[in-house]
């Protein structure tokens, strides 16, 4: 699997372990791919998990949604295109387009709504300007 971001790319093991005999990846693996993509995007902007932890903050998932358009196959090159759709006081919506890297066919479109929390209080925390300012908001999806 190959995932691209604005500032870099990474390769992973792929969906092979999540096919369950169907020849297609399952929802849980899609969520895991989106989480790994998000963590890499955070790190690209200087916000590693260690930095969040050191400041006493964390992101937690409020909701996930995914729409499957076309099936992925075992040996497909999968490209995950993430972007920040909005940043509010304590939440941020991240959207993802998952495409076949060979022919650019859209396989799925997804979004995850994240809440920013204080790790000590385990309650919503206003997103500090240094965090929100590190990410470009793209309201409309980028061109495929």
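Sequence proposed for the structure above (144 residues):
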């Amino acid at each position: 699997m190959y995932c691209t971001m604005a500032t870099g790319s990474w390769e992973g093991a792929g969906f092979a372990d999540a096919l369950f005999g169907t020849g297609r990846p399952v929802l849980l693996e899609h969520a895991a791919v989106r989480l790994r993509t998000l963590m890499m995007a955070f790190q690209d902007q200087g916000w590693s998990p260690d930095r969040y932890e050191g400041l006493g903050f964390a992101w937690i998932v409020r909701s996930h949604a995914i729409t499957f358009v076309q099936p992925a196959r075992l040996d497909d090159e999968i490209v995950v295109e993430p972007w920040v759709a909005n940043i509010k006081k304590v939440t941020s919506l991240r959207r993802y387009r998952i495409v076949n890297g060979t022919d650019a066919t859209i396989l799925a479109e997804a979004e995850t709504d994240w809440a920013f929390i204080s790790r000590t209080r385990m309650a919503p925390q206003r997103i500090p300007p240094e965090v929100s300012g590190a990410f470009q908001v793209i309201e409309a999806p980028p061109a495929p």
